[in-house]
Amino acid sequence: MRKFWSLFFIMGCVLLFLVACSEDEPATTKEDSQTEEKTSEQTAETTEQTGTIKVGVLASLTGALESYGKQTQKGFELGLEYATDGTMEVAGKKIEVVWEDTETKPEVAVQKATKLLEDDGVDFLVGSSSSGDTLAVLPLAEEYEKIMIVEPAVADSITGSEFNPYIFRTARNSSQDAYAAAAAIAGEGVKIATFAPDYSFGWDGVSAFKTAAEKLGAEIVAEEYADPAATDFTSNLQKIVEAKPDYLFVVWAGANSPWNQIADLKLQEKGIKISTGAPDIVALQMMGPLVGMEGFSVYYHTLPNNEVNDWLVEEHKARFNGEVPDLFTPGGFSAAVAIVTALEKSEGDADGNTLIPLMEGMSFETPKGTMTFRKEDHQALQPMYSVRLEKVDGVDYPVPVLIRELTPEETEPPIMN
């Protein structure tokens, strides 16, 4: 009897072991199935990603430079449509755009750029409206080895002292502005005062203008810088009056401009001629007292004479209630065309190291005409315009009227990297 129960106990243990093994086997199969399913999903996701080009655009969509950011946004979207013939595809790959607002704050720009690179996995960066924002982001393009198209920031240091090989700029730089401005007013014995905002845009603009003007024989008799957020520029302008220049050359950006105070102080009646770059339309609306002023323009929609600009003006009017493209619209357009042109050359390969040699020396057609990325510093050489502000029937602000187009060779800036 004792043997019987012993045998029964052993058989029971064997049965339990077999049951346990039979339960383990389906569990292992289920885990393997889940792993295979997950791997399959990852593969599908990878395949999908390789069929999409992601572009992350940083712009001031709120804040002091909001109008600049929104002009860039409209231009970029129209530029992608134009360059891809409406397909939003290049080399068989869809183009997806992710927009981020920098709020015109460098620390926010860095946060948003990091998010675009790490979370969104973008292949390109574009931006930004502010030189300060852009300078803060440049090292990330190099760290992640992604091409960054700089638009519309103009500080010389972007393609100068802070340059890295992943940076390409469709925006003009301060030196290009300066060479165009100097050609308009500088000469042997001419006395010039300058007035600019107290940050990198203003410093670089004045520095470049001073170099160009002095080469032409002019003397800089005063340099005044003001807080860009200030509302009273009287003390700065009084110092300029005391210096008795022949010209006051003004470098400015943003809605908070000094034009009304310049008019109130009647500088022109004191024998001081005003010269500047023709700004965006909002700023032109405050420049009524400066009719007759000669200076330069980066862009006004009636200045370029080419098919790309004709398309931009027509489409912009059709889509935005008759509004014409403004100062920074063609820049956004040009940045989009540059990306599509580069991807056509690489057959859709968005790898930064692959693109660099393809983009160096690359020419592409924009609303301003032909742009070319200079090999040495990746600055786009481009046309500029010598203009005079005139009254035009039906327009409620002084209009930049073409004196002559300045060639890319005439305004080619020095290589500073």
Automatic annotation (TrEMBL):
UniProt keyword Amino-acid biosynthesis present: no
Comp. bias regions, Basic and acidic residues: 27-40
Stretches assigned to the Leucine-binding protein domain: 52-390
Gene3D superfamilies: 3.40.50.2300
Pfam families: Peripla_BP_6 (PF13458)
Signal peptide: 1-22
Region (Disordered): 26-49
Keyword Membrane: no
Similarity-based family: Belongs to the leucine-binding protein family.
This protein's name: ABC transporter permease
